[in-house]
Design goal:
There is one protein chain. By secondary structure, the protein is an alpha+beta fold. The protein has one domain (4-132). The protein has helices at 4-14, 65-76, 87-113, 119-132, and strands spanning 32-35, 42-47, 50-55, 58-62, 81-84. The strands form 2 sheets. A 3-stranded antiparallel β-sheet has the order 2-3-4, with helices on one face. It has a two-stranded antiparallel sheet with strand order 1-5. A hairpin with a 2-residue loop joins β3 (50-55) and β4 (58-62). α2 (65-76) packs across α3 (87-113). The relative contact order is 0.17.
Length: 142
């Protein structure tokens, strides 16, 4: 039997959850500021002319995929006002953030898989861990 709180404590002791975008890019006054509309459903989709960040039914157009991803992850982390950095800084921030997410997912997978539970139980625990860490919907359990 496992203790969910103990498992979460072990994971938190081994990783530092950083806030995106604040802890990934230095914010400066000359950055363009994007105000997001209110909404809970956040997604990205591509069309021929570019990429759209969708917040509920509101579409925000980007012709730069890196800036779209930067704003997507900022929105998924709860930002309503986003200071958008230049593309090179956004690219570095997104890359580091995705590396951190991959490391966190790997650690959770390792810890939960070591419990040798059934597939459904394993996915349920992983989902709870992502929720507890504020990463549910950003990291997928599978």
């Amino acid at each position: 039997m496992y203790d969910e709180n103990q498992l979460l404590a072990e994971i938190l002791n081994q990783v530092k959850i950083k806030k995106f975008p604040e802890e990934y890019v230095e914010l400066t006054r000359d950055m363009e500021v994007l105000e997001l509309p209110a909404g809970d459903e956040i997604s990205l989709y591509r069309e021929l002319e570019g990429i759209y960040l969708l917040v509920d039914q509101h579409r925000i157009f980007f012709n730069n995929p890196i800036l779209a991803k930067f704003c997507y992850y900022a929105a998924k982390n709860g930002s309503k006002t986003i200071a958008v950095p230049p593309p090179d800084k956004a690219k570095k921030a997104v890359k580091r953030y995705l590396e951190d997410l991959s490391n966190i997912k790997g650690l959770i997978d390792e810890k939960v898989d070591a419990l040798h539970l059934t597939g459904g139980e394993t996915e349920n625990i992983k989902e709870k861990m992502y929720m507890s860490l504020g990463l549910y919907g950003i990291i997928e359990p599978v």
